[in-house]
Amino acid sequence: MELARNAPFDKVIFMVVDALRSDFVFSPQSGFQFTQELVRSGFAIPFTAHAAAPTITMPRIKAITTGSIPSFLDVILNFAESDKASNLEGHDTWLAQLKAKRDGHLVLLGDDTWLKLFPQTFAFADGTSSFFVSDYTEVDYNVTRNIPALLEHDEWDGMVLHYLGLDHIGHKMGPSRYSQAEMDGIVADLYRALQSTKHLQSTLLVLCGDHGMNDAGNHGGSSGGETSTALVFISPKFGSKFEGLKCPTTPLDGSLIYYDKVEQSDVVPTLAGLLGFPIPQNNLGVFISKFLPFWDPEDRLRILQHNAKQILKVVTGTFPNLSFDGQNRSDSCEDIHSAGTRLACLWSRLEYLSKNDTTTNWDVKAAALYTFLKDAQDVMSTIATDYSMSKLYLGILIGTLAALPAWLIALPLLQRAKFVGSWFSLLTLTYGVLMFGSSYVEEEQQYWYLMASTWLFWLAVKV
After folding, report:
1. What pLDDT sits at residue 80?
2. ∠ CA 58-432-209, rounded to 5°
3. Phi/psi class of residue 282: alpha, beta or left (left: φ > 0; alpha: ψ in -120 to 50)?
4. Residues 6+ apart with CB under 8 A from 49
5. How far apart are CA 356 and CA 350, in angstroms?
6. Alpha carbons 244 and 264: distance in angstroms, whole number
7. Bridge-partner residues for 334, per DSSP?
8. CA torsion, points 159, 164, 165, 170, in degrees to nearest 10?
9. 15 three-state secondary structure
10. Which of 9, 148, 288, 372 suits 366 as a labelling partner, its CA being 20 to 30 A distant?
11. CA pair distance 420, 202, nearest whole angstrom
């Protein structure tokens, strides 16, 4: 069953700029001048998308394709080039739904993490490695060089572009405007193609970041810079539906929140509605209300009801002992402290409005649907990331106790070795500290180059 009738788009160009922090696009210092002009004219709809930790590429791709909440295990899998445990080939994603819609053809250009996650999904792919961070130019050129030829053909239904240069620059030099204008130029070329090419006139362009970066250019944690990403939906069709917004602008409350804040997972049901395919079954995202004007009130409710019923399946699987049959209606659901019981109450309220109240305006029903959707999203996201701190501390303690005997055995040897022992101890300590920064993990070879050169120099001086 399609999510909505008369979907306004039949193709999507999903452009991911790695580490695209919100201010890189929306602030006065931004190099995205053309994109800002589209926002001012109403042809681009901007948001700040919240990227939940861990802010690493692989879990963020999982979030924006499945709508679910990734785990911290994906931090390890992100760096495990040959690992297949994180493969999403058999999972329900918007890529799979778009591909199944009409035997669709998908294209991938850029970060080969997508190919590890979806090895049999793309009809054409040209992947690039994300771990050679000294490359700022070729890694992006390898994406852009294929675009003109692909835009001339009508065989594809979805095109994923994942640019890495901005992230690589951040790892080397910290946040920088360098390459922002280049990425903006790509947006300009794509938008003009949507305007002038007949078979692209119902194509949606999405510009987004997978994660942000902190002031040192790192990512992986939960600071405001790492979790605040730019999200822009772009189409010539938007001009007749939306008014332009001020851009550039300043963030709310001195943070990095520009315009409306949404969750990255909200991209999934929103794409489903705009392109007319079912929402992936494990999705926790909520359809972005800004795009409801594309439909009449009846279809707007249909979209939200589909979204609510899909999330209800996830909720009932989490709270199997609670009844969601619509019999537990209350006028004060918000006062209920138990998360599961509160969701059951909100769902009962929806069931009552749907079956018994034919006079209520559609916007009242829509508000009730959004109350359930947002509450369910918050509850399920909290449960998915509710780690037992006591067990985490216990794991650290066990690891420390396991390493202690080895250290005690090695200590006499290191003491006899004097300088060599001191050098080995320094090496171990500094290497452990560096592993807390994603930039150092990705550039680990530089650490070993330095240490090896220093060691060889000391040996040469000693001899």
Report:
1. 47
2. 25
3. alpha
4. 208, 209, 229, 230, 231, 261, 262, 263, 264, 266, 267
5. 10
6. 23
7. none
8. 140
9. strand
10. 9
11. 67
Question: In this model, does residue 391 exceed pLDDT 80?
Answer: yes
Closest CA to 50 of 285, 270, 242, 248: 285
H/E stretch holding 158 reads strand 158-163
> Phi, psi at residue 207, to the nearest 5°?
-110, 125
Other C-beta atoms lying within 10 Å of the C-beta of residue 102? 10
Go through the chain and tell me how many residues it has.
463
Q: How far apart are CA 131 and CA 112, in angstroms?
A: 10
Structure tokens at 243: 């008014």
Contact status, residue 13 vs residue 206, Cβ threshold 8 Å: yes
Amino acid at 221: G
Write out pLDDT tens, residues 322-347: 888 766 666 678 778 888 889 988 88
Distance in angstroms (rounded) separating the CA atoms of residues 259 and 233: 13
What is the C-alpha end-to-end distance of the chain, expressed in Å?
Answer: 77
Quick one: pLDDT at residue 218? 80
The structure tokens 């070993």 sit at 448
Q: Which H or E element spans position 232? A: strand 228-234
Q: pLDDT for 396-429, tens place per residue?
A: 899 888 888 887 887 787 677 677 777 777 787 7
Compute the Cα dihedral for 364, 370, 371, 376 and give only its sign.
positive
Which pLDDT score, from 0 to 100, does residue 129 have?
Answer: 79
Tell me if the pTM is above 0.70: yes
Kindly give the pairing relationship between strand 124-128 and strand 106-111.
parallel
Residue 443 has pLDDT above 90, yes or no: no
Q: Are 262 and 288 in contact (CB under 8 A)?
A: yes
The 10s digit of each residue's pLDDT in 196-247 is 999 999 999 999 999 999 888 888 888 899 999 999 999 999 988 899 999 9
Round to whole Å and give the CA distance between 421 and 414.
4
Instruction: From 181, 159, 186, 185, select the one nearest 169 (Cα to Cα).
Output: 181
> Whole-angstrom Cα distance, residue 302 to residue 375?
19
Q: What is the edge-to-edge ordering of all strands in the sheet holding 106-111?
A: 124-128, 106-111, 158-163, 11-17, 203-208, 228-234, 44-50, 260-263
Distance CA 442, CA 227 (A): 20
Residue position matching structure tokens 């909200």: 266
